[in-house]
Structures are given as C-alpha cells and as structure tokens.
Amino acid sequence: MASVLSLKKTIYLGPFVHSQSLAELEICTQGAIGVDEKGTIAFVERDVTEAIAVAKHEGWESAELVRVQDNGFFFPGFIDTHIHASQYPNTGIFGKSTLLDWLNTYTFPLESSLHALSRARQVYSRVVSRTLSHGTTTAAYYATVHVASTNLLADICLAKGQRAFVGRVCMNTLSPDYYRDASVEDAVRDSRASIDYIRKIDPGAELVAPIITPRFAPSCTAECLSALGELHRETGVHCQTHISENKPEIALVKELFPERKSYADVYDAAGLLTPKMILAHAVHLTGDEVELIKERGAKISHCPASNTALTSGCARVRELIESGIAVGLGTDVSGGFSPSVLEMARQAIWVSRFVAMNDGDQAKLSTEEVLYLATRGGAKVVGLENKIGGFEVGMDWDAQMIGLGAVSESGEAASESEDPVDVWGWESWDDRVAKWVYNGDDRSTVAVWVKGRLVHQTSRYQR
Length: 463
Ligand SMILES: O=c1[nH]c(=O)c2nc[nH]c2[nH]1
Prior knowledge:
Elements: E1 10-19, E2 25-35, E3 41-46, H1 50-55, E4 64-67, E5 73-76, E6 78-84, H2 99-113, H3 117-133, E7 136-142, H4 147-160, E8 163-167, E9 169-170, H5 184-201, E10 208-214, H6 222-235, E11 238-243, H7 247-256, H8 263-269, E12 277-281, H9 287-296, E13 299-302, H10 304-309, H11 317-322, E14 327-329, H12 341-359, H13 367-381, E15 399-402, E16 405-406, E17 422-423, H14 429-439, E18 445-450, E19 453-457
Parallel strand pairs: 1-4, 6-7, 7-8, 8-10, 9-10, 10-11, 11-12, 12-13, 13-14, 16-17
Antiparallel strand pairs: 1-2, 2-3, 5-15, 15-18, 18-19
Helix pairs in contact: 3-4, 4-5, 5-6, 8-9, 12-13
The structure holds xanthine.
C-alpha cells in the first residue's frame, strides 16, 4: 500500500453532494473540501470561490487543487455491505435457480476452485478493481473456506487501497464433501488464522479488517455457531452471515434447529446477534425477529438485485428502517447480478415499489433515501459511521468524482468521452442527481479516493 503519509494536502473544488439524514441530501454547488496528508477532511467550505477557500486556510496555500469536471460533483464512496468476492466470475449467471439449488449448482463448485492461489489471485484482483471502478470504497467481503486465498484477498484490498472487511467462510455441515470444514475445531482454527493474518498486515485496521463469517445457519451446526460466537466475544471482530432469504431456507432452519424460536434466535443463542453482526437479506423476518434484531443492535444488508434474481422475495425496507435497525445496501455478487452499488440503489427503489403495490405508498423509497443507504446507512452497518459515508471534518476522504455528459447546441455529446447521462443544462441540481441515479454507471465514476489516496481513475480524469 502506498503510504498515506506521502499524500499532499489537497483541496477538492466544485459541487459536492452527500446525505445529511435519511431523507435529506445536501447539494452544495460551490464547495471546497480540504483533505490533509493523512487523508482526513480538515475543512468543508460552502459557497466560496477557489481563491477565498485557499486564502481562508493558513498552510494550504500550496495545496494541490482538484476540480470537478464534466458537470459533475463529488459524492461519498459507496459501501457494499454484502459481497461474495469469490463468486465474482459467476456475476449474471443464475438461470432459473432459487437459493438452495443455486448454491449447489453454481456457487460451491466455483468457490471451491479458489483453493488454487493462482485462480484466487485472478478473481480477487479483478473484483477489487471492478468494484473500485464503480465507486465502492468499502466492501464487506465473503471469501471462501481457504485460509491462504482469503488472506490473499486481504492483501489485494490493501495493495489496491480498498477499505474492506474480509471473511473466511465457515461451513461444517450440509455442505459438499469437496468444500466444507471438516470439524468445528477446523472452522475456529482457520477463522483465527485468517483473523491473525489480517490483523498483522494492517495492525490498526486502517483499511482492512477481518470479519467472522459463518455462511448461514443451515451450513453450521449449533456447536459451530456457538464456537464462532465465542470467537467473536473473545476477539471483538465483526461478524457477517445470511438470514431469512427464502422460504425453503427458513423451513430448513426450523427443521435443523427445532429448539429455537426463530431463525434470528438461532444466531442469538450462539452469541452472534450483537451490534457487530451484519445480517444479509432479512426478506421474511417476523415481527418478533425484527424486534430481537433491533434489541441486539445487529445490522441489515438489503440486497435487492439478488432477492429478485433468485426470486427470494421483496424485503420490507421501510419497516426495517422505521423499527430503528441500521440498513445498508449489498450487491450480493453473485446472487446479485451487478457489482455496482449505484445499481443496488436503483434496484432498492424498484423493490420498494413492488412492496408499495401491496402495502401502500409509504413503502416507497426515494432517491435521497437509497443514496443514504448506499453511504451513511452502509457506514453504520459496518460500524464506521464516524469515519466514512459523508463529508464532515474529521472523516476520511473516501469519495468519488461523478461526471455527467453535456449535450451541445447541435444535439451531439459535448465531449468525446462516452457518458451514459445527458445533461441539457436546464435541469435543477436535484434532477441531475436523479438522472445519475437512474442512468449512471461506472462511466460516470471519473475518479475514486480512499482515505485520500487516488485508487481509480478513468481516462477522463484530469489533474
Ligand atoms: O445470496 C446468498 N449467497 C450465498 O452465497 C449464500 N450462502 C448461504 N446463503 C446465501 N445466500
């Protein structure tokens, strides 16, 4: 990793957009954000000229200046709260399967092939580069059961400069012979080995941290879940798993854990339902489970593309948010068909509209709300809400420069660069942002920074 201390003081000039609350998006059309040598935001100025912004801050006279290009704006980096790095080659491949047959047909064979480090290097290098190019500055990754390739994913995140939680997957039952933990002891020993390694390569968890990853209740015995709960208590490391994604899965959990009141109770009994747990999906939770998750302070990753692709169901996100649970967005590659959190924001809007068709208009999520889930909401889910997700003094500069295409008077694109969004010049700023949310893609992401370090740029980016 390039040392963050080698950064230069930089002032980012031009419009910026970020969430102030679930429903409120601040759009500052003439901003100046100063970022120090450690990649931390030192000041945020609104409605200032370039000259005044520089003059106002002693010691910033020779700071580097980065100006917004192409009708664009700075936006906080996206936070993908649930992504299987190991499944990236299968993105878009799911046929007509549903969860349990999808796992056996598509997922386990691919994941098991990543025991080969050469394959793991190829897949993990690509997924980290690809997600960075879509503006994902933080990702909560599932790797595989293999310690060496899981550790390699952490190395790659660190080298490419992506903030990440990296989890070695645990699965000691109902899993194929060729891809499983042989025993509870193995699951714990190998999880611990990966935790120790990741803590060694990034001791202060500046960028990369381990995350304990029981795959889901059907693939872990009660003994295994409890042992991982104990490891969680002992190490203080975050946890991630799946919950209540599809109905046959929920029926299976009932059959496997008859002594437990609910799916959520299975995790609670194991000591895993804590404020550091990220639960993916949560499509079919009962009222009692929502209550329990809220009481325990566990968080939820909403994965709309996956839930539609695998016909799992439509999560009732408004109810989850209103119950007080922190919710973020997850691509869930490769149950989800896209590595883009911007696409998830769109998909979350669509899913909420399908819920609204049954439950009423209050279920609909707005553009502002899904952008909150993609940034500040995600930051809460991974426990970094004081560090990332918005532009505040003291937070890290995890950001993306968004560019939008301009239309010339002749009706042609004003610049040579391919841009999926046409801006005519008469739109309000709210409308520009909406056009990006509905039509933008990685071509709109001109440059990306994590902790002040430039980690991705397109050919459009000029310094
Ligand atoms: O969407 C999902 N992807 C997975 O890999 C998985 N494993 C258990 N449950 C799962 N759900």
